[in-house]
Every structure is written in structure tokens, then in C-alpha cells.
Amino acid sequence: MTSSKTPGLTRFNALEETAATAALHEACASSAWGSKLLSQRPYDTVEALFAASDAAMAELTADDLAEAMAGHPPIGRPKPGDPTSSREQRGMAGASEELKTEMLELNLAYQDKFGHVFLICATGRTGEQMRDAVKERIGNSPEQEREIVRSELGKINRIRLTRLLEEEAA
């Protein structure tokens, strides 16, 4: 995306508040994040939207992060009928049954330790890379992991915002 206004950004800026709220909720389940982005419309550039997203993500409380994570299914188990999760987790689609089983066990162990799903920007990652990441991150402290999750959510939000801006007008 260039720094100039894109048709998608123009469309996003012009959306009614309820439609814009719904579109942002599809990108990130945190209502605080979505409200912050809505309050700053219109955006002059895609980069300005990304900067607002990053700033809003940095301000999220632990509860806001939990709300955002609740919108993400466990790695290896995308929500049925959710093309976004399926697309983002494509790296697990062709994984062996052994890897899928191992990932399920690791997801459960991670969730037991941290109280939330293992969250990673899965786009472009293989099943093995995601498995290795959860194995590495399970040793983190809750504070370390919260900041890693914040960073991963920020990456996911940028990808999803880009997709939102690239969608054809409805």
C-alpha cells in the first residue's frame, strides 16, 4: 500500500459508525481498540491508520487484551465457517496428525499456564514454526507473554486492516 489515499481507505472513512464498528470488530475483538480507531477517523493515509492501530494496541489493558484474544481460536482449530482464521492458520492445514495432536496438547498446556489461547501471527508460518514458537513461549512469565501477545495482535491487526482496505466495495 502506498502513502496516498486508497479507495479502500476512502470507503472505510465514509462508513457509517455501526458498519465501521462491525468492520473493526472483525479485525480485532477489542472494543477499546475499535473505539480508539473510530474516534480518529478520517485517516489521511493507510500509514496513519496503522499508526493509530499500533498506538491503540499499546494502550490496551490486560482486560482489553483478553477481550481481543477471545476473538481468536486456538492454532490448529480455526472456527468452522470462519475464512479469516482458516486463511491465517493455513500452515496447520497440511500438518500431520502427529503435529496436530502435539499442537493441541501444547495449546492446552499454554492455556492452563496463561489462561488464554496461544496467540501468534500465523500468516505465512508453517505448523512446525508455530509448534516451535509455543514450545519456546510457554517458558515465559505472564508479563513477558502479555507483551508478546500485544505485539502479535498488532501484526494480525495490520494484516486484517490491509485486507479490509483491499476488499471490494459491498
Q: If you had to describe this structure to a student in words, what would you say it looks like?
A:
The two termini are 20 Å apart. This protein is mainly alpha-helical and 170 residues long. Helix 3 packs across helix 4, helix 4 packs antiparallel against helix 10 and helix 8 runs parallel beside helix 9 (127-137). The radius of gyration is 17 Å and the shape is globular. The protein is 67% helix and 0% strand. The model has no long low-confidence stretch (mean pLDDT 89).
Topology of this structure?
Blueprint: H1 7-14, H2 17-27, H3 31-39, H4 46-59, H5 62-69, H6 83-88, H7 90-93, H8 97-114, H9 127-137, H10 142-166
Helix pairs in contact: 2-3, 2-10, 3-4, 4-10, 5-10, 8-9
Q: How far apart, in Å, are the first and last alpha carbons?
A: 20 Å
Q: Helical region count?
A: 10
Give the low-confidence spans. Answer: none
**How does the helix and strand content classify structurally?**
mainly alpha
